[in-house]
Each structure stands twice: as structure tokens, then as C-alpha cells.
């Protein structure tokens, strides 16, 4: 047996959320802030572990563009998909 509810809770109507793809424009999602944070954290850790570059392998041209906006450069001498952020 359930206890009686008080106030507005008694009239609360619950509905299922819409599908993610219907309410979010995933193609417009910008993760620049997340990338910037990851780069800053990597640079901070680099002094502790002695890294010489941040290396990434973007999976498509859209990601290449995102990385280039953050200052990451293509490194075709390593492989066609390799990009890196050299030390400052």
C-alpha cells in the first residue's frame, strides 16, 4: 500500500523523453572547449613525464578541422592520418 502524496506531487504527470536524435543537433555539437581542456591538461602533464608532442589520429575530415582550429598540425611524414601538437 502506498502512502498518500502531498501538494503538487499528486498531480505530477510523467512523460518519456524524446529520442536524443530528435531533440539534439549532433552535427552542430562543438567540443572545442573539451579539446582545449584536454590540451591544457596534456601540456601540464608533459613537464612531469617528458613528452615531446601530443599526437592524435582523427577519424574523419571534420575532426581534422577541429584539431587544426586548436593548433594541431598534420604530420604526413608519420602517417596520412597523424596530427600532432608540437611543444611550444
From TrEMBL:
Superkingdom of the organism of origin: Bacteria
Name the record gives this protein: N-acetyltransferase domain-containing protein
Amino acid at each position: 500500500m502506498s502512502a498518500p502524496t502531498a501538494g503538487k506531487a499528486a498531480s505530477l504527470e510523467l512523460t518519456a523523453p524524446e529520442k536524443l536524435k530528435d531533440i539534439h543537433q549532433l552535427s552542430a555539437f562543438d567540443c572545442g572547449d573539451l579539446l582545449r581542456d584536454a590540451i591544457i591538461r596534456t601540456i601540464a602533464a608533459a613537464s612531469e613525464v617528458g613528452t615531446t608532442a601530443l599526437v592524435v589520429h582523427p577519424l574523419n575530415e571534420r575532426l581534422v578541422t577541429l584539431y587544426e582550429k586548436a593548433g594541431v598540425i598534420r604530420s604526413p611524414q608519420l602517417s596520412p592520418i597523424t596530427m600532432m601538437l608540437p611543444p611550444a
